Amino acid sequence: MHKIHLLEGHQSEYSILEKAQKSGYPRDVVMLSIGLAISLALFSQPQNSAVNNIQSLWLSEPKNTFEWTEEKALDWVTFSQMVDIQSSPIGELYGITDYSVGPNNYRLAYKFNLENGKWTSFDKDFQVKDIKFDIFGNYYLLDTKGRLYAKNSKTQIITNNIKDFEVSSKGLIYAISSVALESNDQTKLNTWIRGSSDKGNKEYSYQYILYSPKRYSKLVVKDETPIYVDENSTIIGYGNQCIKDITVGIDGSLWALSCKQNSEKTDFQLIKWEPVRGKWYEVTNSFGVKIAAYNEISISIVDSFGRIKYSTDKNRYENVRFSEDGQRPGLFADSLILNSTNIGYVQGLIKESHYVSKICYRAAAVDGFNAEKFHEGCDYQGPTLTILKSQRGRVAGAYTSASFTSQGQSSWDDKAFIFSPDLQVVLQIKQFSEAHKNDWYAGPSFGESKDLYASLDKSYYSQSDAGNSYQLPPGLTYGSSEAQAYLFGERFFELEEIEVYSLI
């Protein structure tokens, strides 16, 4: 196995020395630090045949028949203090190092040259926390202060306080803010924000959307669709797997590091999503802390010692160990109200516009019948679907694309509707009608005059008076006893459970 080494070092001897002398750090100690840093990166040149083999492998077209063998599929490569690695859509590798010289810390990016097998500096001064790419290979930088920069820029900051981000093939930026816990005029969550460095240009140079760290810890984009890891490190929609890191190849292959650790408890198990079976399987003897994928057969992984592994074997596998025996959950799969007889109907109402559901409020089983808990979990979360179950077992609910708030103002939404899986009917919002109220002291209330109202105070009844803001089926008249009993068999009813889901 050939070695791939650092070409330019972390910085030139003179630049490190100059910075250290300006800060008053002793020259002898600086020179010792330089020697240690350089000694970690051996400068022997790789054989051209080996480089060509790696280049051929790394840029090979994805093959759906390829999987990992039980033999050792990844080999270690020596490199100095690597902490992260990324792959661009055109097959370029970028590594990030993190090291200290005296009192100064440097987190710098390096690019791997596939033609000569060498690493070259991306920028000697820019402090990189993360680097991502769109489908054309344009880069987007996040610095160590959480500042996110525009396309191919090291100067134009588009937003601050970013914890993690991803870029779609169309250049749309999905980002998790490290400080924005709820949406307001200063920090708008779940809303596309546009901007341009050229105010006279009608074309926007960037678009980004922010998510709260209370709900998400990581994200990637697959087929123009975000995949989220929640605040508990659990991936949403792919087998409920505990995830430490995740990456998507240009071909849509999905890789991750699970929470399962090696015997030393330093690195995490490399796993791959198998879409046909809907399961994750473990790549044998492969553990690390960061990963990057180019395609189905080209994967790199960094371990806790700063070493790099990359795929070197294209043989098919015979025996693999699946990480867990879970199918990909659908919308509302964790619902305590919906069951096998009605969940398909409810999923069908929104599956064309939403693909991820996450519970933000569940009264009886988790949060209690409490309006404050409802607003704390569901305000400013974007589209939601509310499901009510009465003590008599009847089920109905409502969808709205407008966020709940606690501001006391009504929300208008021409996409809102009330539904009943029992009756398999949808009541569409009437034109110019109120979708739902936003009173801080009350639960979900749909329609101007309580077409559907969930009381979160057990001393009061919930009620349905359908037909004012939402359209009744032909033959029913608003205000009639038949219309008032239409959804739940009675106008006033007691709730057994209520679930509210935020939707993406």
From TrEMBL:
<protein>
    <recommendedName>
        <fullName>TLDc domain-containing protein</fullName>
    </recommendedName>
</protein>
<dbReference type="InterPro" id="IPR006571">
    <property type="entry name" value="TLDc_dom"/>
</dbReference>
<dbReference type="Pfam" id="PF07534">
    <property type="entry name" value="TLD"/>
</dbReference>
<feature type="domain" description="TLDc">
    <location>
        <begin position="334"/>
        <end position="503"/>
    </location>
</feature>
